[in-house]
Amino acid sequence: MDRPHSVSVAGVIVDAQNRALLIQRRDNGKWEPPGGVLEREETIPEALQREVLEETGIKIALPATLTGVYKNMTGLIVSLVFRCQAADGTPTTGDETRALRWATREEVSDLADEAYAIRVLDALDAASPPAIRAHDGVKLV
Asked: What are the structural domains, with CATH classification, of the chain?
């Protein structure tokens, strides 16, 4: 039997200088936008707000703008990525976050694997209609 897909959300918080807030994950050291898998009883906006708050200490304003849908062909994860605005809070590390930083377009491509950098770049571009892309967990396919 085929394994089911999981659904995750990620929030790209954009500041007034058009920089994106990236987190460095504690588990693998990778740089990416904050996010994670939806819990069973959660709506997509609830999951987005919870994950971003848990990983950054920032409460985001809703609604957020969907800028991309990404399928990890290897991990069977479909990720919905949103461009977000901070509503309250100060960026802080936590249980899942080793470090945070505001990154320019150029820095995003240097810091993050291609599969995650493109999510941030699509959000910075406010992709409309949302981008739809596939990757293997690292590179676009």
From this structure: 6-135 (3.90.79.10)
pTM beyond 0.90: the answer is yes
Q: DSSP string spanning 1-45?
A: -PPPPEEEEEEEEB-TTS-EEEEEETTT--EE-SEEEPPTT--HH
Phi, psi of 95 (to 5 degrees): -55, -35
Beta-carbon contacts of 41 under 8 Å, excluding residues fewer than 6 positions away, are none
Residue of 82, 84, 115, 120 lying closest to 104 (CA atoms): 120
Q: Closest Cα to residue 96, out of 49, 141, 36?
A: 36
* Euclidean distance between CA atoms 111 and 118, whole angstroms: 12
Tens digit of each residue's pLDDT (9 = 90 or more) over 68-112: 999 999 999 999 999 999 999 999 998 999 999 999 999 999 999
Q: What is the pLDDT of residues 14-65, one digit of tens each?
A: 999 999 999 999 999 999 999 999 999 999 999 999 999 999 999 999 999 9
DSSP state of 110: H
Task: Output the CA torsion 41→44→28→13 (10° steps).
Answer: -140
